[in-house]
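Troubleshooting: if your tokenizer reports a length mismatch, compare your output against this known-good record of 152 residues.
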Amino acid sequence: MTTERRSPGRMIGDAILQSIASLTDRFKQDPSPNQIAQELGLSRQRVHAQIRRLEGAGLVERRSGGHAIHLTEQGRKALAATRTEVDPERLAIRERILEAVRALQAGGTPANHQAIVLHVLAQELPAIQEELDAMVADGTLRHENGEYSLPD
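Known-good structure output:
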């Protein structure tokens, strides 16, 4: 297993490819976007956006009027080339962190309140602090003066 840092979009795309393959194997039919979202614990909107990106790259195609997502041959090759297993728990933590930062920024929450909220979460769940550090390292988040924010 490699430790390379990948963007959240890339991680989610890889997780979706793995989920499509897994669900197809399990149920012997192409999964719906809702089944993929449920399996990964992601929002339907996030999954639909990533499916559009994967479609554009030729890795998946919609079937049954868009209700089923099929892994193309190119998608199978991309999946086989993925050496890093995507940890759904880590992916869910990363998604929750992004949602929290967006909500705090959109609500005009003072920076010190944001720092306190994230600090408390980090104290309770070391995995969140580890993921916050990774997100700052890979450029997904900025951390300045005790405040986390989305990059410009």
